[in-house]
Every structure is written in structure tokens, then in C-alpha cells.
Amino acid sequence: MPEQFTPKAELDQRIHRLQQMMAQHAIDGALVIEPTNMFYFAGTMQSGVLYVPAEGEPVLMVRRSIERARLESTLSCIVPFASYRTFLAILDEHGLASPQAPGLEFSIPMEMYGRIEKYVKGPFKDIQGLVARCRAIKSNYEANLIREAGRRQVDNFARIPSLYRGNMTELELGAAIEQQMLLLGHHGMANIQSWGSRLHIGYVSAGENGYYPHMFDGPGGCKGICPAVPELGSQRPIQKNEPVLIDLAFGYQGYHVDMTRIFCRGQLAREALDAQKRCLEIQQWIVELLKPGATPSQIYASMIDKLQKLNWTEHFMGYGDRAVKFLGHGVGLSVDEFPAIAKGFDEPLEAGMVLAVEPKKVLPGVGVVGIENTWLVRAEGDAVKLTAADDDIRELPL
Amino acid sequence: MPEQFTPKAELDQRIHRLQQMMAQHAIDGALVIEPTNMFYFAGTMQSGVLYVPAEGEPVLMVRRSIERARLESTLSCIVPFASYRTFLAILDEHGLASPQAPGLEFSIPMEMYGRIEKYVKGPFKDIQGLVARCRAIKSNYEANLIREAGRRQVDNFARIPSLYRGNMTELELGAAIEQQMLLLGHHGMANIQSWGSRLHIGYVSAGENGYYPHMFDGPGGCKGICPAVPELGSQRPIQKNEPVLIDLAFGYQGYHVDMTRIFCRGQLAREALDAQKRCLEIQQWIVELLKPGATPSQIYASMIDKLQKLNWTEHFMGYGDRAVKFLGHGVGLSVDEFPAIAKGFDEPLEAGMVLAVEPKKVLPGVGVVGIENTWLVRAEGDAVKLTAADDDIRELPL
């Protein structure tokens, strides 16, 4: 795993795109603070703030650690930062005017906002949507990292059956998978942006735990380790002939793919096999629509319409009224990126977007079947499967 | 690992303490949203809001998942929640008036605050400090869980040498430790409250990586996996005769201990052994002061004074001006709890507080030595070591 510092040309291009969007939204200076967003624009993740002016070079102000920022970031202007008290003075030193219409990520905590607004005059505009739209379209550099994450994830899934030992619990298998992922270059834990959500690496959920209720906004369920940590897997042993839902985010150098396969010790019942087949069909229908110009909201509406006609919406994407209202989501530096394949996402898909598509079906009393792969939208037409493994149900040793 | 649901009497006591503090601060209703805080008062961690009135039973309003909240929480009033639009109506249904002086965690994102203030009239007071002070004092129930985390952590550290294989990298050893921790009942990842900080399980840092600059506010350093994920360990092989700093948070049923030991393949130089001895002395000096009534700020000041007289402050608690300005920190449902042993923490220690004490010293060009244990402050006097293992430097196989 070579040391990867984000090239200057790459950062310049990202910052330029943000500046174009800022101009469209009449924002003349943006404060980027959220660590993942800072990493996207600066190539380093520090405590501090990246100031992006309407035009010209950004200024990376770093509280901790300035040394590390200078090691990792290819930006040219990196300066120490003690508090927002000195923010405008630093801008002035760099020939930058105080922003008149500043932008800020409204994902920052209220208390931090309180510290900022004392010294930087608002009103502020929320730049989360702009940053999400920048991040949604992956460059070749980024697509290659996600491709690599995909290759390693395929390898990871292929090795899961060999990790299984008799009478393993969900958690034991999950722990073995986690170690394997780290050794395969996984970067440690899945990054989620939604406030208050955590995912660890994903989860192993056997049988009815596949739809165990969970605060996480996803079609699958997870009982997890304990009420304080509803993640990864529970002490429930994996039984014969039940579907085992393994949904894992693999991250490489910051970039993720999301992938789910159904595993089984033995043989699934006819009902589960039929539902699995239907999920694969739905995946195929969706993926045929993943082209520049298509809108996620239309893809979603057309699929739900189709499934209603087939009378197949009950417990689709979750148990009863716990079902989630999306069929997929953007993936990149976090696993919950823009856009979702859902109502309200009316902007057309663009080449370079990366989306996880995850049709899943709950069979009450049995478990969950379905599929998830991560796809790259291309100008040339057909989306490319970045988790390029077959979609079959995988065997665990009996 | 038995299923642990927080008993009703425990929740009642916690809520009662919060209500007492609310009365002192003229807050007549508190909205608790942050998942760890919700878990503390409700015994479940869901998307939604726990409303604690000035007096009487709280109302847990749950967006997702109401089923899971009802399985896990022993609170009596748990209701579905769609949006803050209905918040006051729900209070009214339960005979509760709209709060006139409401409290809110100012750690919530600005955008969430925007959704709340539309329907709940402010001005709001920040309740983070109140909640932190509630959480700082552990009940017997909590102390027993932390004790159990300590026992398992001791076991974990004892087994680390047997995980080491020739030429392992920091990351390989870290991955093996992480799997072992999960199998020993560790709950998956360390919980940190500071916004933007992540820790995974802690880190393995060999030689000079022990003071590699890092955004995290701690005395040790960590190069980590990559710039996007500066955590756990790097691809650097562990060399002979260098200090290997292993700083890990073990979590059991939501509760953590924090512990550090120095490992070595071979023999440390005299200079490192002397510095290690001094760190153990400093630990002893601090721990003798961990009694109800002592103030953390005074402990900090007296230690720094003592070390200045000994001319021993250079690179103590971090390299050069990267040194952190604390000697320890509260531990519980997160690893960065109130209080810190630092300037500004002038409220006296109380029985039931749990603190990690971590004197560490950087030896430039060599690495980091030192110690970290987690201690329970007791009414009876001496603090109890919850990470009850010897403090010696541990051998890794050559």
C-alpha cells in the first residue's frame, strides 16, 4: 500500500469546482471544517479550517497538527491557527477580503458556530449541498482508488467462507472478517457523515436478525454487540439453512465501496431463492438506468411502480413500515454520499458518480435476501460494477 | 456476555440528577438528542429526542427505531416521533407544558438546531456541561461494567505478545489485537464525543511514530493507515530495541477503560528505561491525589511545578509545542469525558469518578515511553486501578 498524498492538480480541480458553485450561489468565501470535506479539498484531515475564497488559492489554517498538514497536503498556503479571533487577520495577511456572503457547513456543532459568528460576520449560507455535489462526481484519480477498494472487497468476500468455523456467532465471524479486511488494506472503519450514525465495517446478521430494528437508515437490520453498540454482529450463532446477510463497506485510502452478499450454511428454502432471484432482476433493471441524464427520483419511482404492479413491495427494503425509501446511495469518502436513488433527487446523474444499489427483501420469520454492488456511472453508457464478483448466494461450511 | 438492559432504577436516578441540575440552572425542560447521552438516560440509542421535564417522567420520542427503543429501554413513556413539528403537541398529550427555558446539547449540528427552533421557542441553554457532570459520577452499576472492561483489557494486553509474528507491521499487530478484543467482548470501537475526532480502538505506534503529529488531542502520536484514516497503525514494521506505544480503549457494554503499555522486541536503552521509571513515579504522585475533594486543576499545577523543578518538562506529554496540556481525562461511555486533569477544571473530584491518568514522555529520535491506567475515585480514600495489571515494559518476541 503506497503512501498516497492527493496530487495538487487534483485538489486544484476540486477547489475550482467548488468556487464555480460558490459563484452560482453568490457565496464569496467558504469555511470548510468537517474533517472528510477538508480531506477532499486539502488532502489532509486536521483540526482547523480551510478557507476557500471566491477566486484564487485557498488558505488552510491548522490548529492541530500543522506539521502533519504540511507533510500530507499539496496545497501551497498552510498556516497555524489558534482561534477564530485571528481568522480575518489571517485572510488579510494573505490579501483576502472578509467574506460578505460566507458559506459554512451546517453540519458543524452549534457551539462551534457560536465561536465562529463572534468573529466572522454572517448571515452564513449552508455549503453542505455544494460540497456533496462536488464530491459526488469522482475524478479518474478517485475512481481508481474506488476501483482498488472494489478489487480488495471482492477478495475479502471470496475469503469469508474460509474464515467460518463451526458454531461461530455473527460477532465471531464479523471479528474475523474485520481483521482480514485490515490485512487486505481496509482503512479501519466505514466513514459515515450523517450525524449520530456509526457503522463500524458493516454487519453480519443471520436469519431474523437481518431485519432487527435499528436506528440506521438502511434496508438491513443488525442486532449488534449490545444496546450501546448496535453494530457488527451479535452473540447469536449462525444456524443452518438460514440467509446470512453480510453487508460491508471496504475502504481504501479513504474511498469506499459498499457490497452485500447472502451467505448460507446449507440450502435456502424455495421462497428465499425466489426472492433472491427477483432482487437480482431488480438490480439489473436499476443498473440499466444508471446513465448520465437519468434522474434518481425517476429511477426510484419507476421501480416502485413496477414492483407495485408485481405486488412485490411488501417488506421490500425493510420489514413493514420500517422499510427505507431509497434503492441506493452515493459512495466515496463516506458511505452515505449524494445522491440517493430516492424521491426528491431530481438532478440528473452525471458521469463519474459512484452509487451503491441495494435491493433487499425481508422474509418474515426467515431473514433477508438481496444484493448490493457499487457502480460507476460512465459517459460511455453502461455503468461499471466496481464490486466485480458474481451475485450468487455464497456457501458457508456446514 | 449477557444481554444488558439498563435497569429502570438506574435510569430514574440519572434523570433525577439531571433534573436537580436543571433546577439549579433554571432550565425547565431538556432535549437530549446526542446518541450516547440518550443511551445514558434512556438505555437505548435511537434517532429521536428524549425530553426531560423539570419534574416527573421523561418522554422518549423515537423516529427510528421505536421497536428497538421499546425492547431496550426501561423508561415507561416511549412514543413515535416524526418531526419537531409535533414536539409540543406530544408534550401536551403527556400533560407537559411547553418549556419556557429549554436546554439543548450545543453539540448538535446547526442544521438540526434550525429544525428545532422553528417549533420550540428559545433561547436555549447548553446542557452539555450538565450532562457531562451527571455522566462523570459513576453508579455502582456503571463502575461494575467499567471494572469488567478493565478485567478484559488486562487479559487483552497480556495476550498481545502471543499475537506478534516476526516482522509484523504496526497495522498487522493492530489488526490482530482488534480481532482479539472483539472476541474478548470489546464492543467494537472506542466512542469519542469531540466532534470530528475518531480513534478506532486506539493505536500501535513504534519508535518515532509514537510522536508522529496527529489532529487528536493526546500525548501519543499515530501515523496510522493513510492520510484519510490516521488511525490504528501504519505499514511500518516493528523494529528491535525500540519502544512500541500501545494505547487502547477497551469497551464493554458501552463503558470504556483506557490503558497504555510500552512493548519492546529486545531491550530499551538506558535513557528510555529511566524515563519510563520517572513516568511511573509521576503516575504514583498523581494517583495519591485522586481523592474526593481534590481539584484536577490543582493536581495538574502541582505536577507541572514539580516537573519544572526537576527540569523534566521538555517533550513531556508530547513533542515540543505539540505537547498536550492535561495529565488525564474522565472515561466512561466515551473516552473523552469530564473532567480532565488540567487547568480550568476547578470543581473537586467526587467519589465514583473514573479517570485515565497517562504520563508520557517523548524521547526524540527514539520514541515514546510512559503509562496509562484507569482509576476509580472512592469515598474511602485511595483510588482503585481498574486496569489492574503491572506497569512493566512488556516483551514482544524477538
Automatic annotation (TrEMBL), chains A, B:
Give the Peptidase M24 domain ranges. 145-378
| Entry keyword Nucleotide-binding | no
Tell me the ranges covered by the Creatinase N-terminal domain, including all copies. 14-137
Q: SUPFAM superfamilies in the record, alphabetically?
A: Creatinase/aminopeptidase (SSF55920), Creatinase/prolidase N-terminal domain (SSF53092)
The entry lists its GO molecular-function terms as: aminopeptidase activity
Q: Does the keyword Protease apply?
A: yes
Against InterPro entries, the record matches this protein to: Creatin/AminoP/Spt16_N, Creatinase/aminopeptidase-like, Creatinase_N, Pept_M24, Peptidase_M24B
Keywords, ordered alphabetically: Aminopeptidase, Hydrolase, Protease
Protein name, as recorded:
Xaa-Pro aminopeptidase
